[in-house]
Amino acid sequence: MLENRDYTLIIDQSASMATTDQRNGRSRWSALQESTLALAIRCEEFDLDGITIYLFSKGFKRYDYVKSNQIKQIFADNLPGDTTNLAGVLQDAINNYFKRKADGKTKPEGEVILVVTDGTPGDRQAVFEVIINATHRLEKAQELRISLIQVGADTKATKFLHALDDELQSVGAKFDICDTITLDELEDMSLTDVLVKAVTD
C-alpha cells in the first residue's frame, strides 16, 4: 500500500513558523526539521529515488529527488519569512504529479502529498478550489492523497484544516482525498501510521 508511490513534502516557511511554541522552547521551524527528517527517512524506504520537497511562503522552491541526508542543509539554507501562499505551491505539486502521470513517470499506486503547515494561509478559498479541481482529474480516490499536518495550536487553522478533511465532497469534490493530523498527534503516531492514514483515511 505504501510502496509503488511517490512522496512529496510541502513545508510551510512563512514568518509564523519562527514562533517558539514547541516543546523545550523550540521554534516551529526547528521542530519541523526533525519531523521532516523522520518523514524523509520513512518515505525513502518506499520511494527509492528520493522525495520531492517544497518550501513555501509567498513563493516556493522545489527540490527534486531529495534524500534524507540533504534535509539539514535545505533547512540551513532557508529561514522562515513572509506570508502563506498554500494554494500556489499545492497547485504546482498537483500539476507536477499530472505531468509525470501523462509522461508515464509516476508510480503505479500514485502519490502522497504531505503538507506541514501552521494552517493559516491567506488564500483559504483558493486552497479548496485547487484540491476540488484536482479531484476531477483523478481516476480513483487513492491515486492522489493529501495529508495536512498542523504545527502549532491555532484554533482557526484547525477548523480550516478539518474542513478540508471533512467537507470537500459537500462543496463539489469528486473524491475526499485529504486528511488532517496535528504535530502533537504525529508525535504519538509512528510515521508509518501517518503515511497509512494519508493513504487510507
From TrEMBL:
Gene3D superfamilies: von Willebrand factor, type A domain. It comes from the Bacteria. Residues 6-199 form the VWFA domain. SMART domains: VWA (SM00327). PROSITE patterns: VWFA. CDD domains: vWA_ORF176_type. InterPro entries: VWF_A (IPR002035), vWFA_dom_sf (IPR036465). Pfam families: VWA_2. This is VWA domain-containing protein. It comes from Mojavia pulchra JT2-VF2.
